[in-house]
Structure formats: structure tokens, C-alpha cells
Amino acid sequence: MKFETKFQKIIPRTHDSASFRFPRPAELDYKAGQFLYVTLKKGDKELSKHFSFSSSPTEADHIEFTKKFTDHEYSLALKAAKAGDWARIDAPYGQFTFEGEYPKIALLCGGIGITPFMSICKNATDKDLDCRITLFYGCRTEGDLAFKEELEDLAAKNKNLKLVFILTQPSSNWKGATGIITPELVKKELPDFNETMFYTCGPPPMVEAMEKLVANLGLQKENLKREYFTGY
Ligand SMILES: Cc1cc2nc3c(=O)[nH]c(=O)nc-3n(C[C@H](O)[C@H](O)[C@H](O)COP(=O)(O)OP(=O)(O)OC[C@H]3O[C@@H](n4cnc5c(N)ncnc54)[C@H](O)[C@@H]3O)c2cc1C
Fold first, then answer.
1. What pTM, to 2 d.p., does this model score?
2. Whose CA is closest to atom 52 on ligand 1?
3. 189 lies in the same domain as 122
4. What is the mean pLDDT of the chain?
């Protein structure tokens, strides 16, 4: 559905990303993992981009997306947005969804690729879905991990949710995994990886790296669902 709306709330997530919330129309139904188009105004000009929902379908009062900022036109216009500003939304779209279809899933992402997985993890926790989820989430530093506390709160409620944060440039206090997501890390954290459906999303180089990882684990390409964060 297409509708005009106003920004409700803006929540900084990291030094270079923020979440943008809008009231959720009662008729808007969507699945965890889907995406929306968001149109903004810059003067008389309209600018549009698509983003995964970072909110969960279980959240009745708002919908949310989360953008990594760049110095490009849309990003600059979005960074300047305030609560009450106009926007048009067109949603939902996409097949990159999880509603409990598999008993075990692994979610592989880096950086802003966390957004649909935030939605999937929250939805599964709120609905008490009977499925094991292992999230592998790579970033440069701890400060680059968006939704870290929110994910830890979900994992505290959901014994079926396991979080594996992995940093390439950890501080000396970091006690988690370091480096990048490798087949060895997946085997260590998820010994039954061969009974698991994998999901990955993000910029094409990330998705391609995860395709290689799944192949190196000896799995078929049908074992990996992908969403490319391409902009055009
Ligand atoms: C299904 C889906 C979900 C997505 N979810 C998210 C999300 O949750 N969060 C998020 O931040 N992003 C998400 N994206 C990506 C998003 O749509 C934007 O592309 C991205 O945020 C960059 O937008 P931008 O305006 O900042 O930069 P852009 O202006 O789009 O530039 C991004 C890069 O592309 C290059 N580029 C731009 N136009 C062209 C062109 N015509 N030819 C070649 N190169 C070009 C630029 O140089 C730059 O390096 C998603 C994309 C898809 C398809």
C-alpha cells in the first residue's frame, strides 16, 4: 500500500546510522525481512529509496527503517529530516522473509545488513517461534554494531536466539570473536550447520563472500537465501 505520512521519531543507532519511525497504519501488514520504499522531499523534488524494515510486524504502533548515512543526496536529505516532516511510503515488498518455516536458521551479515535480521529476531522472539536462530554479525568496531543492546535484550528473553558478534578492529576490552565470518567460526558456533537454512543480506560483496562461505561449508546454494542491498 502507498500512503503519505509524517516522521514520528528518529533514533540514532551508531555514529553513522539512525532509525526513522512512522506511525503504522492499521491496514499495513508485512512480514519480518520485507522492505519498504520511502520518498522524501528536498525542496520541490521527491527522492525515493528502499530499505528493509528494522521494525517487527509485532510492533503495532510504528514501522521503522534504519539507514547508514553517506554524503549522497538522499542520505543528506534524510539526515536533515525532523519529526513531523512529510514522507510517502510504499510497502511491503520482498521475499526475504522468515516466519518460522525452518527449525534452524543462521543469519549472516555485516554493518547495516543487520536491519532485516533485527526484524526477524524480534518477530521470532515476540511470537515465541519454535526455531533456533544463530546471528553472525560482523563490524569493524563495537561502536559500529547497530542494535547491539536491543539484540542482547532479545537473546535474554529468547533461549533459541544466539548472538555471535565479530569485530575486525576490536578494542582491548572486547571479549567476543574477532576477524571476519569464516567457515571455521560457523562450525565452532553452530556445529549442526548442515541442518540449518542460511540467510544473508547487504552490499553485493558481502553477499558474494557469504555465498563462498556456504559453498566452503559443503552446502548447496539453495541453503542460502540472499538479499542484495543495491540502490539502483
Ligand atoms: C531490499 C533492499 C533493502 C535495503 N535495506 C537497506 C537498509 O536497511 N539500510 C540501508 O542503509 N540501506 C539499505 N539498502 C540500500 C539503500 O537502498 C541505498 O542504496 C543505500 O542506503 C545507499 O543510499 P545513498 O542514497 O546513501 O547512496 P547512493 O547515492 O545510492 O550511493 C550508494 C553507492 O552507489 C554508487 N552509485 C549511486 N548511483 C550509481 C549509479 N547509477 N551507477 C553506479 N554507482 C552508483 C555511489 O557512488 C555509492 O557508492 C537496501 C537496498 C535494498 C535493495
1. 0.95
2. 229
3. yes
4. 97
